[in-house]
Specification:
The structure holds two protein chains of two kinds. Chain A has twelve helices and two strands; from the N terminus they run H-H-H-H-E-H-E-H-H-H-H-H-H-H. Chain A is an all-alpha fold. In chain A, helix 1 packs parallel to helix 6, helix 1 packs antiparallel against helix 9 and helix 3 runs antiparallel to helix 9. Chain B has 18 helices and 22 strands. In chain B, the strands form five sheets. In chain B, strands 6-7-8-3-9-10 form a six-stranded mixed sheet, with helices on both faces. Chain B has a six-stranded mixed sheet with strand order 16-19-20-13-21-22, sandwiched between helices. Chain B has a four-stranded antiparallel sheet with strand order 2-1-4-5, covered by helices on one side. The longest helix of chain B has 16 residues. Classes of the chains: A mainly alpha, B alpha/beta.
Chain lengths: 310, 536
C-alpha cells in the first residue's frame, strides 16, 4: 500500500509540497535567528504570525491588493516586535516568559478581531502560482523548484540575504557582538538596546510575513489559531540550525518534508491514523531538540538582558 | 578642539588612525602635558573616593598610578575615561578644558583604556573585534580587508604580534591583551590607561608588553599604568603618583624612589613584605600527599592529568601557574568539592580520597577558596554567622538543635579583635565588608581551628597591601607551629617571598618542584609557559 508513495509523480508532488510548505518556517525562523544572534529569545513568534496572518487576510478580504496586505502584516509585525523589545530590552523582563505572554496576546487578539470583523471562515484568492519561464519546464525539478507563488521565492531569497546581513555588514557585526558580549560592544560605543530593538523589528516583520504566507499564500483562509504552534517550531529550528542561516534552511526543509509526507499520506488514503501523521512534526521537534543539546555556536548572552554595570 | 575631533573621525572612515608624522601620537612636543586633571572630587554613597586629586600625564611618559585597593586610583582613571562623572574638578587636554561624558568622548580625546577584564567578543576574529563600532568606509558593508591591513601595519610598528584573522577564543591571555591595545591604537588613541596589565601575564609576556610600551613611549604616547606591584613600577615608569584613601600623597620621579619608600607612601607606615631569608626550615613528616590525582573541569575536559605532590609539616609549598592550568581543580579536589577521576589523597598517612568535605574539615583540613565572595562566605550572613559557619553544629556553638548565641557572640568578638577584622559590628552583613576584611574573616575562621593542612587559593588577589602583609604574617606563624600549607598563587613575587618549595603547574601537570632559594622568576616563568629549560 506504500507503493503509491514511491511513484515518480507522487515523489515530485511530495517534493513540490516540501519546498512550498517550508515558506512559513523559513520566514519565521530566519527572523528569530536575527533576534537570538543579538541575545534576545522571542518565544512570541507564533503570536506575531497569527497577527500577521489576520491583518494580511483582512486587508485582502476587504478588497485591497495582495501586496498591500503583505505590507499591513509587516507593519503589524514591526509593532509586535517593538512591544517585545520594550518589555524584554527596556523593561528587562525575563525573555522566556514575556515571549509566552506575547504569544497569548497575539493568539487572543487575532481571534477576537477575526470574530468581530469577519465572523465566519471565508476564503480569498491569494498569491498565484508564478511559473518561472523555461526553468519551470525542466522535467521534475522544474515543477518542484520553479512553480510556486511569489512568497515562496521570497522566503528562499531571504536565506542568502539574512546570511549577508549577519556576516557582511556593520549591523551584522554589531548583532553578533551584542549577542555574545554586550558589555564589550557597549564600551566601543555600540548601542546594545538599539541593536536589540532593530533585530526585534526585523524578527517581528519576518514572523508576520510568515503568518501572511499562510493566510494569503498557502491556505488563503484565516482561522483562529491557524498556525497550530508553527511559530514554536520555528524557534526550535534556530537551535537546530545552530544559529546559522544554512542550518535554519536545512531544518525548515526537513520539517516541511515531514509535513508534506503527512499530507500525501492522508491524500492517498494510506491507512495510517491521521492523528499519527499530524503528530509527526511535533515529535520531530522534540527529537531534534534532544539531539541538538551541544550548543556550539550559541550566543553567550542569549536570553539575558543587559544593564550597564560599574 | 573641533579640528581634533574631526581629524579622528575622518580616520575612522579612511582606514587606520594615523596621526601626522607616521605612527607618532600626534605632532608632539616631548614632556608637554597631554592630559591634566585638577581638583577632582568624586563621592560615592558614604565614601569620598577622590578628594581634590591633581594628576597629569606628559607626552612620551609612562606614569604609574599606585595605591591600595580603594585608594581611588581606578576611580580617577574611570573619570578620565568617561565612566564616572566627577562632582568637582577640571580636565584639560593639550591645555584646553574638555568634558568627557562617555568612553566614546574619551576615545575622541585620544584616550584609550585597557581594562583588567578584557572587553572582547570571543567568537569574533581579531579584525572583527577591532572593527566593531567603527564606521566602515563602505557603510553599511564591512571593510574588514582595510581594517586588517591597518592592524598589520600597527602590529609591525609596535611589536604587537597578532594574527588578525584568528578568532579571539583561540588566543592566549597575552595575545588578547595585545588585541585590546590594538583596539585603542586603531581608534587613534594618543594615551593609554592600563589597569593592572601584568596581573594575568607570564614573566615573558610581561617583558613583551614592556617592550611594546617602550616603543609607544618613544613615539610620544602617554601611558598610565595602574598597579600595586612596586618592583615593576620602579623598573619601567618615569614618574609615580601615589594615592591613599582618595587623597594625593604625592607625585615623584621614579629614579628617586626605593621599594620601601614607595610602600611607606602607599600605606602610610613601614611595611614588612619580605620574609626573613635566613630562617631555618624545620620540616616534619608529610601531612598532605597527592598521588597521581586526575580530575575533569566543569566542561568535562581533563583538568588534572596525574598530579603528585607532598607537603610536610612546617612547610609552605607554592603552586605557580597561569590561571586556568588546573589550579582551581587542584584546590577543589583536596577540599573534597570536586570528584577525582583517578589517584589518591592522603592526610597524615590516612587516605581521605572518599571522605566528604565535612569529614576532611573535622580531620584538620582548612581551605581558603579562590572565589571568596562566592565560595568563602555567605554574603547575606552576619559576620558572626560566617565565623561559625563550619562548626556551628559542634558542642561549642550549639545546645542540641539551638545555637548558643551568647557564646557565638563572645567568640566572634574575640576573632574580630584577634584578626583585626574591620567591621562596625559582628551582626553586620558580611557583604558590606571590604575584600581585605572578608579575607581576614575567612582566615580567622580557618586558622582559629588550628588546622593541620591549609589549602590557600589566591589568598591575596585583589586585596590591599595592609591585609596582604597580615595574611603573610599569619601564614608564616602557622607554618612555624607545624601547619602544612599549599599556597596556590599567580603572583610569583608572593610565592618567592613565602614558599619553601614551588611546584609549577601547566596544563594539569606538575612541570617541576623547585627549592625557593635555587630558582628565579625567569625559570618559573618558562615552566609556567610549558617550557622545561633542561629538556629543551
Amino acid at each position: 500500500m506504500f507503493d503509491e508513495l514511491f511513484t515518480i509523480s507522487t515523489l515530485v508532488g511530495i517534493l513540490h509540497s516540501c519546498v512550498r510548505l517550508a515558506t512559513p518556517y523559513l520566514f519565521a525562523s530566519l527572523g528569530e535567528t536575527f533576534g537570538q544572534r543579538s541575545g534576545v529569545l522571542n518565544l512570541g513568534v507564533d503570536g506575531i504570525m497569527l497577527m500577521g496572518a489576520f491583518f494580511a487576510f483582512y486587508v485582502v478580504f476587504e478588497g485591497h491588493n495582495l501586496w498591500v496586505g503583505l505590507l499591513a502584516a509587516i507593519a503589524v509585525g514591526i509593532l509586535m516586535g517593538l512591544l517585545k523589545a520594550f518589555v524584554s530590552v527596556t523593561m528587562q523582563s525575563l525573555q522566556g516568559i514575556s515571549g509566552i505572554g506575547l504569544y497569548l496576546f497575539g493568539l487572543g487578539l487575532s481571534s477576537l478581531l477575526f470574530k468581530t470583523l469577519i465572523g465566519s471562515v471565508e476564503g480569498v484568492s491569494g498569491f498565484r502560482q508564478l511559473a518561472i519561464p523555461f526553468l519551470s519546464d525542466i522535467p521534475g525539478i522544474g515543477h518542484i523548484l520553479f512553480n510556486h507563488n511569489a512568497l515562496v521565492y521570497l522566503a528562499y531569497l531571504m536565506v542568502p540575504v539574512s546570511w549577508f546581513v549577519i556576516n557582511r555588514t556593520t549591523l551584522g557585526l554589531k548583532i553578533r557582538a551584542v549577542g555574545h558580549n554586550p558589555e564589550a560592544a557597549d564600551t566601543l560605543g555600540v548601542s546594545v538596546n538599539g541593536v536589540r530593538y532593530t533585530t526585534m523589528m526585523i524578527g517581528g516583520a519576518l514572523a508576520a510575513v510568515a503568518g501572511a504566507s499562510l493566510s494569503i499564500g498557502l491556505q488563503n483562509v484565516f482561522q483562529e489559531n491557524m498556525t497550530n504552534g508553527l511559530g514554536f517550531i520555528a524557534v526550535a529550528l534556530v537551535y537546530f540550525g545552530s544559529w546559522r542561516t544554512v542550518g535554519v534552511l536545512g531544518g525548515s526543509l526537513l520539517f516541511s518534508l515531514v509535513n508534506a509526507l503527512q499530507l500525501w499520506v492522508q491524500a492517498l488514503a494510506i491507512p495510517v491514523p491521521s492523528e499519527i501523521a499530524v503528530m509527526m512534526p511535533y515529535i520531530m521537534t522534540i527529537v531534534v531538540l534532544a539531539f541538538t543539546a551541544r550548543q556550539i555556536q550559541k550566543p553567550a548572552a542569549l536570553a539575558r538582558s543587559y544593564e550597564r554595570g560599574e | 578642539m573641533l579640528t581634533g575631533r574631526r581629524r579622528i573621525e575622518d580616520q575612522f572612515v579612511y582606514g587606520i588612525a594615523r596621526p601626522t608624522g607616521g605612527h607618532r601620537a600626534v605632532n608632539f612636543r616631548l614632556n608637554a602635558p597631554y592630559v591634566q586633571m585638577y581638583g577632582i572630587v568624586k563621592r560615592f554613597p558614604g565614601v569620598l573616593a577622590c578628594d581634590h586629586v591633581d594628576f597629569d600625564v606628559r607626552r612620551g611618559e609612562l606614569h604609574a598610578l599606585l595605591g591600595e585597593n580603594g585608594a581611588g586610583k581606578s576611580t580617577l582613571m574611570r573619570i578620565l575615561y568617561g565612566l564616572y562623572q566627577p562632582e568637582e574638578g577640571r580636565i584639560l587636554r593639550d591645555g584646553a578644558e574638555v568634558t568627557i561624558h562617555s568612553p566614546t568622548d574619551a576615545i575622541r580625546q585620544g584616550i584609550g583604556m585597557i581594562h583588567q577584564h578584557f572587553m572582547l567578543v570571543d567568537t569574533l576574529t581579531v579584525t572583527e573585534n577591532v572593527a566593531l563600532g567603527l564606521k566602515s568606509s563602505r557603510e553599511p558593508l564591512l571593510d574588514l580587508d582595510r581594517v586588517e591591513a591597518g592592524i598589520r601595519e600597527l602590529s609591525e610598528a609596535y611589536g604587537l604580534q597578532i594574527d588578525p584573522r584568528a578568532p579571539v577564543w583561540t588566543l592566549s591571555v597575552g595575545e588578547r591583551q595585545r588585541v585590546e591595545i590594538m583596539k585603542a591604537l586603531y581608534r587613534g588613541a594618543a594615551m593609554l590607561i592600563l589597569d593592572e596589565p601584568t596581573a594575568v601575564l607570564t614573566p615573558q609576556e610581561v617583558e613583551e608588553l614592556f617592550v611594546t610600551l617602550g616603543y609607544m613611549k618613544e613615539n610620544g604616547y602617554s601611558l598610565v599604568l595602574i598597579s600595586h606591584k612596586l618592583q615593576e613600577i620602579l623598573s619601567i615608569s618615569d614618574r609615580i603618583t601615589v594615592l591613599r584613601s582618595g587623597r594625593l600623597v604625592g607625585t615623584v620621579p621614579t629614579k628617586d624612589m626605593t621599594r620601601q619608600e614607595l610602600a611607606r607612601m602607599m600605606v602610610g607606615r613601614d611595611v614588612m613584605l619580605e620574609r626573613d631569608r635566613d630562617d631555618e626550615i624545620d620540616v616534619g613528616e608529610v601531612r598532605l600527599r597527592l598521588e597521581d590525582v586526575k580530575a575533569v573541569d566543569v566542561t568535562g575536559q581533563p583538568a588534572l592529568r596525574g598530579v603528585s605532590l607532598s607537603v610536610q609539616a612546617g612547610e609552605i609549598l607554592g603552586v605557580a601557574g597561569i590561571s586556568g592550568n588546573g589550579q582551581r581543580e587542584l584546590a577543589e579536589v583536596i577540599a573534597g568539592l570536586r570528584p577525582m577521576t583517578g589517584g589518591s589523597v592522603e592526610m597524615d598517612g590516612t587516605p581521605i580520597t572518599d571522605w566528604s568535605t565535612a569529614r576532611r574539615t573535622e580531620a584538620g583540613l582548612a581551605y581558603i577558596p579562590e572565589e571568596r565572595m562566592h565560595d568563602g562566605i555567605v554574603r547575606d550572613f552576619a559576620v558572626s554567622e560566617n565565623l561559625v559557619l563550619q562548626e556551628h553544629t559542634s558542642d561549642k556553638f550549639s545546645h542540641g538543635i539551638f545555637l548558643a548565641f551568647d557564646y557565638i557572640a563572645r567568640y566572634s568578638r574575640q576573632l574580630v579583635q584577634d584578626f583585626y577584622i574591620k567591621t562596625p559590628d559582628i551582626r553586620t552583613m558580611t557583604r558590606n565588608l571590604s575584600g581585605g576584611n572578608i579575607q581576614r574573616l575567612i582566615l580567622a575562621r580557618e586558622l582559629s581551628r588550628r588546622p593541620k593542612v591549609l589549602v590557600a587559593a589566591q589568598p591575596t588577589r585583589g586585596i590591599d597591601i595592609g591585609a596582604i602583609e597580615y595574611i603573610y604574617q599569619q601564614l608564616l606563624e602557622q607554618r612555624d607551629t607545624g601547619m602544612a600549607t599549599l599556597l596556590i598563587s599567580e603572583d610569583l613575587d608572593e610565592l618567592l617571598a613565602l614558599c619553601d618549595r614551588i611546584a609549577v603547574i601547566y596544563e594539569g601537570q606538575i612541570m617541576d618542584v623547585l627549592e625557593r632559594d635555587k630558582t628565579s622568576a625567569e625559570e618559573l616563568g618558562l615552566l609556567m609557559a610549558g617550557v622545561h629549560p633542561e629538556r629543551q
